[in-house]
């Protein structure tokens, strides 16, 4: 059996952090992505501009740089705001940026931009006749989104979504650089302490491959679900 | 040159963070980043072409190892690959006594190896897709001319596949530029490394990282426009007629 030098439980905790971080930032990025896609498709030019600016800047700068900017800069920014609140209104609060929350917010923010592009393309691929039919039934905008546009859009969005998730999963490794104890950080510490980098890094690589394979299977199932009615039979 | 230095100094007169000294760090970082990205892309490209051809081979013992290589390198984070190679080379028995150690001692070469292997895996998949989507008629035409397999690859399949792969390869180049920021983790003074240094020295995260983000943004746009220009030139024949 592989000797983990007692790092097994910490490695497991690290894997849990990686998964939690990945899933929570995926949820945040999907919400942000839907908002961005709506902003970019809206008739208001201000919303369109904001959406475009957001996706362009985020996709033009490395993840790691954004992460450091938001993580190191975030605390100073928040401190400046709370200081200002204290001097102006005598409100004394102290907010400490938690690494995990910062990680989720940063990764969510970064991938919201990628999701936005995916969803925009998918929304545009929805047949206009379907939306007109919904309108003819007197559906409200929200009901139409929920019953027609979202389910039909997901069919086109799923391949991109699954691709983004794979990239997001790998990006979570970067949080180890800003001090979060995910499995990569645990493995790096263990490698240095035990001088056995191959053992730990290969285990971590295998866990990433496992998560990727399981989610690939899950996405294939989802795709089948959303492809109902579009099968080869018609 | 003298007047330029003076002009810059005048411009930076009231600035405590962006002095000539720190700007030179960013300058050296830019050179390191460009070197790292350019070298890994070129070597990766050279590796990827035969791998992509082999990936489509009928023989399982050629196809499967390449599939496995691509699967592993595309399925794990670049940071893990970098750690594996960076920490890993130290523990190869007796390597510290050989001439190789002179090169491998510095983090640049392990980082270059990791980046090259990573981009080669992605590029292989891009090229494989492009080769697979070669029009059937083109291959049949080549066969009808009695071309050998090698001649057909060289004259028909690869040139058209390269062109079709261009948009996806442009994305890969930008991806690689962004991924190169990871090099700063193993103490390489690339652009991000310079930014981290300035941040640590002055405790000024906004100045340090926003400045470097702007540089990356400029680089990204340059690559984007270069590839858009190339696509315009090389993919003319795929455009709908009458445009």
TrEMBL record, chain A:
Pfam families: BPD_transp_1. SUPFAM superfamilies: MetI-like. One of its GO terms (biological process) is amino acid transport. Residues 15-219 form the ABC transmembrane type-1 domain. GO terms for cellular component: ATP-binding cassette (ABC) transporter complex. The keyword Cell membrane applies. It is a multi-pass membrane protein. Gene3D superfamilies: MetI-like (1.10.3720.10). It is found in: Cell inner membrane; Cell membrane. PROSITE patterns: ABC_TM1. One of its GO terms (molecular function) is transmembrane transporter activity. Keywords: Amino-acid transport, Cell inner membrane, Cell membrane, Membrane, Transmembrane, Transmembrane helix, Transport. The keyword Nucleus does not apply. The chain crosses the membrane at residues 15-39, 51-73, 93-114, 156-178, 198-219. Its main location: membrane. Belongs to the binding-protein-dependent transport system permease family. HisMQ subfamily. PANTHER family: ARGININE_ORNITHINE TRANSPORT PROTEIN AOTQ (PTHR30133:SF4), CATIONIC AMINO ACID TRANSPORTER, MEMBRANE COMPONENT (PTHR30133). This is Amino acid ABC transporter membrane protein 1, PAAT family. The lineage of its organism: Bacteria, Pseudomonadati, Pseudomonadota, Gammaproteobacteria, Oceanospirillales.
UniProtKB/TrEMBL annotation, chain B:
One of its GO terms (molecular function) is transmembrane transporter activity. Residues 30-227 form the ABC transmembrane type-1 domain. The chain crosses the membrane at residues 33-54, 66-88, 108-127, 173-196, 208-227. Its main location: membrane. It is found in: Cell inner membrane; Cell membrane. InterPro entries: AA_ABC_transptr_permease_3TM, ArtM/GltK/GlnP/TcyL/YhdX-like, MetI-like, MetI-like_sf. It comes from the Bacteria. GO terms for cellular component: ATP-binding cassette (ABC) transporter complex. It is a multi-pass membrane protein. The keyword Cell membrane applies. Pfam families: BPD_transp_1. One of its GO terms (biological process) is amino acid transport. Belongs to the binding-protein-dependent transport system permease family. HisMQ subfamily. This is Arginine ABC transporter permease protein ArtM. It comes from Onishia taeanensis.
